[in-house]
From TrEMBL:
Residue runs in coiled coils: none
Segments traversing the membrane: 33-53, 73-91, 103-122, 128-149, 170-190
Name recorded for this polypeptide: YIP1 family protein
Membrane-protein topology: Multi-pass membrane protein
Keywords, sorted A to Z: Membrane, Transmembrane, Transmembrane helix
């Protein structure tokens, strides 16, 4: 958790410090990913069960506590899986680099890069759809920035090559995010009708 502020205040220096720490995946998940991924889940649970989704037309769709809990657990699992998938994608894409980092390092890197997306979940306390989308888009832009800043040092490559690698990784990350969002919407719709 000590890196969260640094990722926003001085991302270059913080990414170098993260690389030097050589953190294990279990430590990283226990002390960062599990906690950060809980932020959007808890906020969405509170917002959707107490206020309800506001679609901007004055109507609200409020979830029951059971449905909110059920969907929150699924949403949490999807986010944890998303970080693991992106770590594996980064590791796979780095296969041709001479200083290829370990799979564990790639998963730690993916977890820290996802930090802005996790923090953007705070806005789900008041689940106004257009606001959630706008804040999520800003978080995605900053996540891309963290990729562009962190990849060159992480892989030991120059900035130009790092830009290409980060762009490819971001494109795959957006695809993974879209799949996770689609899964969440399908599960939410299914859960809403079921419960």
């Amino acid at each position: 958790m000590s890196h969260v502020w640094g990722l926003f205040s001085h991302p270059n220096r913080e990414m170098q410090e993260i690389k030097r720490e050589n953190e294990s995946v279990s430590h990283h998940y226990t002390h960062h990913v599990l906690l950060m991924a809980a932020i959007p889940v808890i906020c969405a649970f509170i917002g959707t069960t107490q206020i309800g989704w506001n679609f901007g037309d004055g109507s609200y769709v409020q979830l029951s506590m059971f449905t909110g809990l059920y969907l929150g657990i699924l949403f949490y699992a999807l986010m944890l899986a998303g970080v693991a998938v992106m770590g594996r994608v980064i590791w796979w894409m780095a296969r041709n680099y001479p200083q290829r980092p370990s799979l564990a390092s790639c998963m730690v890197f993916a977890g820290y890069v996802a930090t802005p997306l996790f923090l953007s979940g705070i806005v789900a306390l008041y689940p106004l759809v257009w606001l959630c989308v706008a804040v999520g888009a800003l978080a995605l832009v900053y996540t891309g920035y963290l990729l562009y800043v962190g990849v060159p040092d992480f892989l030991g490559i120059d900035r130009e090559e790092g830009m290409s690698f980060a762009s490819s990784t971001l494109a795959i990350g957006v695809l993974v995010l879209e799949v996770l969002l689609a899964a969440a919407v399908v599960l939410w719709g299914y859960g809403y009708r079921l419960f």
